[in-house]
């Protein structure tokens, strides 16, 4: 199994609206059958402001199925959206 964690810092302008929209648009990723576990999370408000705002945490059977996900039309469209509202990104993919 491979866990894919991708965290984003969103633009301060309209941050709350962007977080809401991030969650709404992330729902289209549920359609991708390669995702075995699907979590979209928001940073707890009481934690440091330097933390990332939101994250995707997805599990896949293999690196190969992760690659299929990354090329899917839903992921490409979501990536275009996120690029328009993010100022920072960090990602890790690890086997477990």
Walkthrough of the structure:
The protein has 96 residues and is an alpha+beta fold. The protein has helices at residues 15-26, 63-71, 73-85; strands at 2-10, 37-42, 54-60, 86-95. Strands 2-3-1-4 form a 4-stranded antiparallel sheet. Helix 1 packs antiparallel against helix 3 (73-85). The longest helix is centred in the last third of the chain and has 13 residues, at 73-85.
Give helix and strand order, one letter per element, not per position.
EHEEHHE
Strand content: 25-35%
Question: Count of helical segments?
Answer: 3
Average residue pLDDT: 97
As a percent range, the share of helical residues equals 25-40%
Tertiary shape: globular
Q: Which blocks of ≥5 consecutive residues have pLDDT under 50? A: none
Order of adjacent strands in the largest pleated sheet: 2-3-1-4
Number of β-strand runs: 4
Largest sheet: 4 strands, antiparallel
Gap between N and C termini:
6 Å
The assigned structural class equals alpha+beta
Q: What is the gyration radius calculated from CA atoms?
A: 13 Å
Defining key terms:
globular, 96 residues, alpha+beta, 4-stranded antiparallel beta sheet
Reconstruct the topology from this structure.
Blueprint: E1 2-10, H1 15-26, E2 37-42, E3 54-60, H2 63-71, H3 73-85, E4 86-95
Antiparallel strand pairs: 1-3, 1-4, 2-3
């Amino acid at each position: 199994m491979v866990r894919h964690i991708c965290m984003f810092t969103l633009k301060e302008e309209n941050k709350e609206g962007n977080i809401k929209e991030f969650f709404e648009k992330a729902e289209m990723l549920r359609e991708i059958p390669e995702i075995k576990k699907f979590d979209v999370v928001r940073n707890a408000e009481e934690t440091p402001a330097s933390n990332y705002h939101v994250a995707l945490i997805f599990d896949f059977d293999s690196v190969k199925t992760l690659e299929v996900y990354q090329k899917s039309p839903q992921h490409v469209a979501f990536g275009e959206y996120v690029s328009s509202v993010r100022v920072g990104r960090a990602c890790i993919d690890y086997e477990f």
